[in-house]
Amino acid sequence: MSINEAVEHDARSSAQAQYDLVLRGERILTTAGISAREIGVRDGKIVAIEPLGNNLQGERVIDVGADEVLLPGLVDTHVHVNEPGRTEWEGFESATKAAAAGGVTTIIDMPLNTIPPTVNLEALEIKKAAAQPKAYVNIGFWGGAIPGNKENLRELHDAGVFGFKCFLLHSGVDEFPSLTVDEMEEDMEVLKSFDSLMIVHAEDSSAIDHAPEAQGDQYDRFLKSRPRGAENVAIAQVIERARWTGVRAHVLHLSSSDALAMIKTAKSDGVKITVETCPHYLTLLAEEIPNGATAYKCCPPIREASNRELLWKGLEEGIIDCIVSDHSPSTIDLKDVENGDFGVAWGGVASLQLGLPLIWTEAQKRGIALEQVVQWMAVKPAELAGLKHKGSIALGNDADFALFAPEDAFVVDVKKLHHKNPISPYHGKTLAGVVRRSIIAGNDVDFATPNGKLIRRGEA
After folding, report:
1. Is it true that the peptide bond before 300 is cis, omega within 30 degrees of 0?
2. Which residues form the Amidohydrolase-related domain (predicted)?
């Protein structure tokens, strides 16, 4: 252990121990900001927050290093784990280890890219059985809304899913078909009856079908084939159907900054709409993507520098609510790296392990504080999913933490990531901030013993 890492003291022999775990340091991020604090943990919960120097006694004590900040564990509500069915793409063991290595202590798994997709109770139980023995972090589940499963929505809700995902165009996998806008509205009416959440991949297939033929290199042609207008039209439809039904709705992976104005208006009108974006839209630029570099392909696509800056502005203004990974891995073969054909390559960026340093690297350039980054990557995603006891260091919350060294740096090496397939658009990039340690319910993630839990809506 380096001198910059946290030092842990074993005090099990002390009769004075009041807590299972005590964490103390000069920089601890609580709901009051970063300050010198001591945290007392008992039975996996935060039960004491005191000024540093109160000398709380614990069976175990972690001294946060002088170069570290104790953060709440991050919450990532947009992860494609792909198990069962496409476990060669990822899987619960590799995905949850990657999450823990990135300071993410809770993920919510998407209902598609698994076989069977999570569109009925039987499929949910199959997925839970696959996840339980491999959970290195806490795992929750989204349900799916597809044609013909309206009668399954309530039973999935009662079984604890956090909401329902639908697509407004082909999902990329045939076993998870898309809804028409009218079908989405019908399902929204059902979800409103039990106050669930509809999360939407909002791109319009007609706008994509009518995109003009483009000239240029592979990426330029791909970018023009998924125009901003496809997002804008679909997002407008989501807003209006949410307005009519009164349902809570959420726009996934926003990449088009053009949509920010109508989202802002909808929010001011009282429409129950929230929006996320992702690290790849905030850190990568269309102008810098090498020809044939299909590791960069995702849908909707990475757009231009001017668009990226407007997304950051949307975050700072509160129009965009949170940042989550949309971790969507695949095998290297499916990325078609040999041919570099964006038309056939799988669309998805694997970044579950890298999200915090990616965003912190860019945030620093803009003078954005670490506290704000944690709002976007822990507090707000927890609020989106209704995780009342996660996302912040506060009394009564779960003792999920990440020890983060914001002044440290590292070079991304895909072979050293826990992601199952070693392909990433970030390979070779230098990033600021290193996650040194993750803690779940007061226990260290040791990457040998899975101690995460499966979590349900309303119980976490």
Report:
1. yes
2. 69-442
Angle at 140 between CA 238 and CA 318, to 5 degrees: 45
Per-residue pLDDT of 94-124, as tens digits, reads 999 999 999 999 999 999 999 999 999 999 9
355 versus 12: the higher-pLDDT residue is: 355
DSSP string, 182-248: HHHHHHHHHHHHTT-EEEEE---HHHHHTPPP--SSHHHHHHHHS-HHHHHHHHHHHHHHHHHH--E
3-state secondary structure 289-307: CCCCCHHHCCCCCCCCHHH
List the single range of 174-183, 210-219, 250-259 with lowest mean pLDDT: 210-219
Query: Which domains, ranges and CATH numbers included, belong to the chain?
Result: 7-71+398-444 (2.30.40.10), 73-385 (3.20.20.140)
Quote the CA–CA distance of 415 and 423 in Å, as a whole number.
8
**Is the N-terminal amide bond of 116 cis, ω within 30° of 0?**
yes
pLDDT in tens, 3-55: 334 444 444 334 467 999 999 999 999 999 999 999 999 999 999 999 999 99
Pairing outcome for strands 19-30 and 33-42: antiparallel
Report the b/e string of 198-207 with b at 16+ CB within 10 A. Answer: bbbbbbbeeb
CA dist 225 → 201, 229, 334, 422 (Å): 17, 11, 20, 27
0.90 exceeded by the pTM?
yes
Chain centroid, CA 116 distance in Å:
22
Q: Which two tokens stand for residue 94?
A: 């590799």
Cβ(41)–Cβ(1) below 8 Å: no
139, β-bridge pairs = 107, 454
Comparing CA positions, the residue from 64, 136, 141 lying closest to residue 105 is 136
Over 60: is that where the pLDDT of 76 sits? yes
Cα 47 to Cα 128: distance, rounded to the nearest angstrom? 30
Q: What is the pLDDT of residue 16?
A: 65
What does DSSP say about strands 248-251 and 197-201: parallel, antiparallel, or unpaired? parallel
Give dist(CA 130, CA 382) in Å, integer.
24
d(CA 63, CA 19): 15
Residue 236 main-chain phi, psi, to 5 deg: -60, -40
AA identity, residue 16? Q
Q: How many CB atoms lie within 10 A of CB 180?
A: 10
- Torsion sign, CA atoms 71, 66, 62, 102: positive
